[in-house]
Design brief:
Length: 100
């Protein structure tokens, strides 16, 4: 999964430290406490907003949940998990990035 995410980021011209598997895994392990992970989510959201005519901006975890709802994310556990107790592991955080 990490390699697929990295390939997608490279294809989207994301030139940040998360273009290595180690960097991506480290950011996902930190989750919403990782500046790199949060910046990645905000960057992805900024690219999706005009393409999908989205209303939500991401400046907080609540808004991240709102954007996932607006994108009709099929993983309800991700949407509700962000608001309630946070996601549980790096796999959940990787899944979140994949859904963007």
């Amino acid at each position: 999964v990490q390699c697929e995410v990295i390939d997608s980021l490279v294809n989207l011209y994301f030139h940040r430290p998360l273009q290595t598997e180690e960097g991506l895994v480290r950011a996902c392990e930190g989750g919403l406490l990782s500046t790199e992970y949060v910046n990645l989510c905000m960057w992805l959201a900024s690219r999706l907003k005009p393409l999908c005519d989205l209303e939500e901006n991401i400046t907080s975890t609540f808004e991240m949940s709102g954007m996932l709802k607006e994108l009709q994310c099929p993983y309800q556990g991700l949407v509700s998990g962000i608001i309630q107790e946070g996601l549980q592991n790096k796999k959940d955080y990787l899944k979140l990035v994949c859904k963007y």
